[in-house]
Prior knowledge:
- This protein has helices at 2-15, 17-35, 42-56, 84-87, 99-103, 105-110, 126-137, 156-164, 179-186, 190-206, 228-238, 276-293, 359-362, 390-394, 397-407, 421-426; strands at residues 67-70, 113-116, 144-149, 169-173, 213-220, 242-247, 257-260, 263-266, 296-298, 363-366, 371-373, 383-384.
- The protein is an alpha/beta fold.
Amino acid sequence: MAKLIRRALAKAKREGIASLARSSVPWLIDRVKVALHLEHDAEKINWFTHITELDSRAEVLKSTPIVLSLSPTSRCNARCIMCGKIFSNGEKGFDLEMDALESVSQYINNAKDFRLLASGEPFIAPVFWEILDTISSSHAQAPYIVTHSNGMLCNKVIREKIMQSSLGMISFSLDAATPETYKKIRNGDLNKTIENITQLIEMRNAAGRKKPEIRLNMTMMCENVHEAPFFVRMASAIGVDAVELWPLHEGPGPDWIVTRNGWTFSYEKQLLTHCADKANAAFAEANQVANDLGMTLHWPFGAMRVQKAEPAAATPATPLLDQEQSSAPHTQIKVDVFERANMPIDLLPESAIIARCKIPWEWFIVDTNGDVRICCYMTDIVGNIHRQTPDSIWNGSVYRSMRRAIRHNRIPAVCTSAFCPYVLGARYVE
């Protein structure tokens, strides 16, 4: 309760009493109804139970996930050169079985936020639209549903389906601002993809709607990072709502080398640590362009600045690692990727703490084969909904261990190699 009061006072200070009253009174009424058992909406009951358990950092939860991520398919029409699924293990892909939805039906009823983030291209799979219908029919009010797409298949038929759906946001992955670079990385036709996205935006605007929100995203590497400012300009020119700029992830796993279209790609050599000066100049210009054009620019790790790949001058402090549930040696992540002074404000310095992570109280990620992960930054599998009940995973040993570690401000064992803002930030706290 004390936290709720502090939040209310902070909001009143920021926005005024009138704004607080408009937003808070309906919320308070709902909370009282839940407390008095007068509320029968499963989503609202679950939400308020979640808030109470999150505030107390409970280890065993009565609430179910408020963010449910489902991967509709691992099939893909693209062959992106940095995709390990294609070039590292050659996976052909398959679709999520609909009986998987039946096993998480209660979670679908209770969740507020849905991420249909396929490890492939969602629009290639008929099951994607079935999942959308299932989610929508389970809620009286449209929930927030997000997906990612490469945009190549976003033809007239797909655009009409999107407009008839309850999708809240689509992020289109392009990774380039010129046809030449797009051909290298995604082996496709950038002009055709841009035309598909532009026509979707025009269709949405003509209908007088703001949803779905349309974003473009770019995975930045040495080959394309110089195009980041042009990427922002391109997004603004076609009427996109926001841009997301992501770095090519440093993480555990083998390097792979692919030669295609006269270009040899090495994953390790494309990491931004190998072109730090060029990357930092591109970041600064992209920020300026976004400010000039009024374009919303999302950075996953704040206003980034990359360090060069040589060893760091000083060894950052390392928080205690939680050793519970650790069945394999810890893989130490590289910590010289970002300069401390340029980590996002939420990670510096007093807030750069694992204890701020909410993921194991909120997220439940189901991959196409039924495997469950806790967080998108983690590769560890904590269960499978075809072999276990969702509740036995949600309140299982790994989830509980992660909640317990975070409550004590320790990096959970399953997170030690995660390319995560909290893990990266926490390692810089002195």
